[in-house]
């Protein structure tokens, strides 16, 4: 049985979705953010020294990092939702699996953090939006010619891309008018039964 240490409104929601898609058995241990700081509670440090989520425990292993967890889960499921067979699709899979956190999320997090600082911070946050817009235009261009990030089938790369794009729609300028293909992709993932089951399992989630 896989144990998911699930922090509310966090990247760990992707792990729940992944598990539901793969139909792997799991259990959830829930953690709530501090109401004032919005940080994870200190209890998570008892699971892993970084005190971050997602964290999973399975067969004596403790794993962190969303992309690494997704790859591990595909292996547990015999390769389902993993790397496609064709070279081009495989390269896109690797790219977006890591692009989600390596490139797409940093400016979104920076805008969020700066926006919480009165006056100067909020002004600075506006300067971040052009950086985010570059990413949103790139992502939109990628989804013009195919339904999923790696190709014709959904993969773990789509699971990874869900969090930054849901965050972008909530607070960083992702709109159907400017990004119709990206928003259509979001509608497709939200309509998936496994996604809906993951929401039920995980509880309140601000983005979906």
TrEMBL record:
- Say which domain of life the source belongs to: Bacteria
Q: Where is the GST N-terminal domain?
A: 1-81
Pfam family membership, one: GST_C
For this entry, the protein name equals Glutathione S-transferase
The record's PANTHER family line, in alphabetical order, gives: GLUTATHIONE S-TRANSFERASE 1, GLUTATHIONE S-TRANSFERASE-RELATED
> To which species is this protein native?
Novosphingobium organovorum
Question: GST C-terminal domain location, by residue?
Answer: 86-208
- The signal peptide, as residue positions, is none
């Amino acid at each position: 049985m896989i144990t998911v240490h699930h922090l509310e409104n966090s990247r760990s929601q992707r792990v729940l979705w992944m598990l539901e898609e793969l139909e792997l058995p799991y259990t959830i241990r829930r953690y709530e953010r501090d109401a004032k700081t919005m940080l994870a509670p200190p209890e998570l440090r008892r699971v892993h020294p970084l005190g971050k989520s997602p964290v999973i425990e399975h067969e004596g292993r403790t794993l962190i990092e969303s992309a690494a967890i997704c790859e591990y889960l595909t292996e547990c499921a015999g390769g389902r939702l993993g790397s496609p067979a064709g070279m081009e699709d495989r390269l896109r899979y690797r790219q977006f699996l890591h692009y989600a956190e390596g490139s797409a999320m940093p400016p979104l997090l920076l805008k969020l953090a700066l926006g919480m600082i009165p006056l100067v911070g909020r002004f600075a946050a506006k300067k971040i939006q052009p950086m985010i817009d570059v990413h949103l235009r790139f992502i939109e261009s990628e989804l013009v010619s195919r339904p999923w990030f790696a190709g014709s089938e959904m993969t773990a790369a789509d699971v990874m891309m869900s969090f930054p794009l849901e965050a972008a729609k909530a607070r960083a300028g992702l709109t159907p008018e400017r990004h119709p293909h990206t928003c259509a992709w979001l509608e497709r993932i939200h309509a998936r039964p496994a996604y809906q089951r993951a929401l039920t399992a995980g509880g309140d989630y601000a983005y979906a």
